[in-house]
Amino acid sequence: MARYIDDILQPGEKVLYSTNAHWIFYLPGLVGWLISAGLLVLARTVLNETAIMLCLALSAFVALVALVLTLRAWFHRWTTETDVTNLRVVHKTGFITRRTFEISIDKVASVNVFQSIMGRILNYGDVTLETMGDSEEIIKTIAAPLQFRSTITTR
Fold first, then answer.
1. DSSP 79
2. Rounded CA gap, 89 and 105, in Å?
3. In a structure prediction context, what are the per-residue pLDDT tens digits for the chain, which is 155 residues long?
4. Any bridge partners for residue 125, and if so which?
5. Which residue spans within 36-87 are E strands per DSSP?
């Protein structure tokens, strides 16, 4: 599947920066996989047959939940694009139901970044784009938000 930005570029327009949803979306699935593995190890250490079966059943259930969470995170990252071109900022989410917004670089009044402590450590955050018409668009949990902001503000 081609990237959305490649389909909508105007003549003479160049992509300056592309980013995506941060990998932190995989964290719930990763935690699930670790819990599932821990339950498997626990099943090998207990002696009671009932406890072994319970650990294996719980491990299988948690692995199934982890698989769903991992696939959901992958799909979210796959269907989310955020790009800065020399003319505009473009953000797209969704696959079947799609939400996009495009803001001309000239109409961006300010770019605000919010990063939690974990966001600063792992380099992700929320970016709010305010336009000259007092509207705002929020892009949640993108990778490298400071670099994204710098690309927009340095023109």
1. T
2. 6
3. 678 888 889 999 999 999 989 999 999 999 999 999 999 999 999 888 999 999 999 999 999 999 999 999 999 999 999 999 999 999 999 988 999 999 999 999 999 999 999 999 999 999 999 998 888 999 999 999 999 999 998 86
4. 142
5. 81-85
Give bridge partners of residue 35 from the DSSP assignment: none
The per-residue DSSP string of 77-130 comes to HHT-EEEEESSEEEEEE-SSS-EEEEEEGGGEEEEEEE--HHHHHHTEEEEEEE
DSSP letter for 86, please: S
* Residue 60 to residue 43: CA distance in whole angstroms: 12
| Residues paired with 90 in a beta bridge | 83, 102
DSSP-assigned letter for residue 72 = H
| Domain boundaries along the sequence of the chain | 26-75, 82-153
